[in-house]
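Priority: medium. Attachment 1 of 2:
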C-alpha cells in the first residue's frame, strides 16, 4: 500500500492498526518483516486448538472482525487463554491467509470528545437490529443503551417490541441498578418516548417521563441532530453493540438475548481497553462509581 502512495495514517485506518505500529512495520526491510511474521506465527501457536472454530466462523461469516472473533472465542470456550487483542488479530489473519478467506474491512465511526469529570454525565440512545433466527427468518429487536461518559462503562437492555415510555423508564432503572448509582446529568436524543413537543426551544416531556424524572432529580440535556459532539460516545456504543455483539448472532428469545448481552458487557465491552482512552471501562468504573449519586428504588412512577 505504501508503494501505491498510501499515507501511513491511511494504511493504519485501512488495517485498523495503530499508526505507530504501521510506521514500525514500514521501517523494516523484507527480510526483517519475514522474521517478524515467523515470530508472530510462533506466538500464535497458543491459539492453534481454536483454529477449527475460527475457520468455521469465518466460513459462515467471512466479514467477521478480529475483535468480534475474540469475543466469540471467549463466549464459546471457557478455557480460552488470556491473550491480547493483537494476538487474536494476528491469529485470525494467519487463518485467513492459510485458508484463503478474504478480509473485509469494516467501517467505524469516531467522534473526538473531551473527558468529563467522574460521575458528571451519562448518555442514552436507542437502536434496533434485524437478527437471524434458526428458522432462517428475521426478528427485529430494539435496545436501550447507556454509557457513563468518563469511564465508558456501558449498559444495554433489549426488548422484542418498540420501546414505550414505561419501558424506557424501566430501562433507566435497570441501568442505575447495574451501575449502582446515577450521574448528575443524562444526555438524550429527542426521542418520542421522552419528548412530546418542543416550544421555542423548551422541551415538553411526556407525562410519564416527567413523573419519573422529577423525583430522580438528574439534569436533562437534549441533543439536536446538528450537535453530534454532545452524543458521540453513545453513538459509538450503539454501533459497537450492532457490530460486535449483534452481528451474525442468532436470536432465540428475548430473555436469552439479554443474558447474552450482560455476559458480553462483562467479558468484552466493559473489560477490554477502550479504543480512545486505552483504559478498561471496568477499571475506570471503580473510580467513577464513587462519584455516582445514590439511586434508591422508586415507587411506581407511572
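Attachment 2 of 2:
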Amino acid at each position: 500500500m505504501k508503494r501505491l502512495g498510501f499515507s501511513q495514517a491511511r494504511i493504519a485506518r485501512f488495517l485498523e492498526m495503530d499508526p505507530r505500529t504501521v510506521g514500525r512495520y514500514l521501517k523494516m526491510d523484507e527480510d526483517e518483516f519475514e522474521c517478524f511474521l515467523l515470530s508472530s506465527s510462533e506466538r500464535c501457536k497458543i491459539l492453534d486448538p481454536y483454529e477449527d472454530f475460527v475457520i468455521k466462523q469465518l466460513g459462515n461469516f467471512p466479514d467477521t472482525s478480529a475483535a468480534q472473533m475474540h469475543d466469540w472465542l471467549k463466549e464459546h470456550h471457557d478455557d480460552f487463554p488470556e491473550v491480547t487483542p493483537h494476538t487474536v488479530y494476528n491469529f485470525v489473519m494467519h487463518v485467513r491467509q492459510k485458508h484463503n478467506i478474504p478480509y473485509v474491512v469494516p467501517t467505524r465511526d469516531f467522534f473526538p470528545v473531551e473527558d468529563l469529570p467522574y460521575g458528571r454525565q451519562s448518555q442514552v440512545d436507542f437502536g434496533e437490529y434485524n437478527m437471524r433466527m434458526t428458522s432462517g427468518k428475521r426478528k427485529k429487536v430494539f435496545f436501550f443503551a447507556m454509557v457513563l461518559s468518563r469511564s465508558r462503562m456501558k449498559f444495554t437492555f433489549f426488548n422484542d417490541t418498540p420501546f414505550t415510555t414505561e419501558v424506557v423508564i424501566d430501562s433507566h432503572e435497570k441501568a442505575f441498578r447495574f451501575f449502582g448509582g446515577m450521574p448528575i446529568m443524562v444526555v438524550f436524543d429527542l426521542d418520542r418516548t421522552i419528548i412530546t413537543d418542543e416550544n421555542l426551544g423548551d422541551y415538553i416531556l411526556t407525562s410519564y417521563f416527567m413523573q419519573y424524572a422529577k423525583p430522580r432529580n438528574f439534569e436533562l440535556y437534549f441533543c439536536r441532530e446538528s450537535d453530534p459532539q454532545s452524543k458521540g460516545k453513545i453513538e459509538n456504543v450503539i454501533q459497537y453493540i450492532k457490530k460486535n455483539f449483534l452481528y451474525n448472532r442468532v436470536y432465540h428469545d428475548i430473555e436469552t438475548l439479554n443474558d447474552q448481552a450482560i455476559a458480553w458487557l462483562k467479558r468484552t465491552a466493559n473489560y477490554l481497553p477502550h479504543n480512545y482512552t486505552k483504559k478498561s471501562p471496568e477499571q475506570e468504573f471503580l473510580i467513577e462509581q464513587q462519584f455516582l449519586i445514590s439511586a434508591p428504588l422508586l415507587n411506581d412512577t407511572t
